[in-house]
Amino acid sequence: MKEIARAEIKTISGKALIEFYSEVCGVCAAVRRKLELLEDGFRDWEFLMVNTSTNPLVAGEYSVFAVPTVLVMLEGRELRRWSRNFSIAEIREYMIRIDSLEP
User: Fold this and answer.
1) Residue 46 structural domain
2) Which of 19, 31, 44, 78 has CB atoms 3.0–4.6 Å from 49's, for a disulfide?
3) Higher model confidence: residue 102 or residue 68?
């Protein structure tokens, strides 16, 4: 997963998964490890992360008030979000659905 800042988030195109996290959040670290395992199966997706402590403006722009929060984006538009309590399997299934819709 690649760490991004405010300027970079505006240039996202294609399919992207973004994890909003905080360094003091243990659950965030566990979620990140599981998302990194997903990365191998979704090679045409960008896997990104935003530290809400160092990038509070980005968190505010995307109305992220709790961590971990995961966004799925397509062509710069948010399609779905999960926050706090969620299953990685749920995210994986949604990503497979997005992939199946493409021609």
Assistant:
1) 2-101
2) 19
3) 68
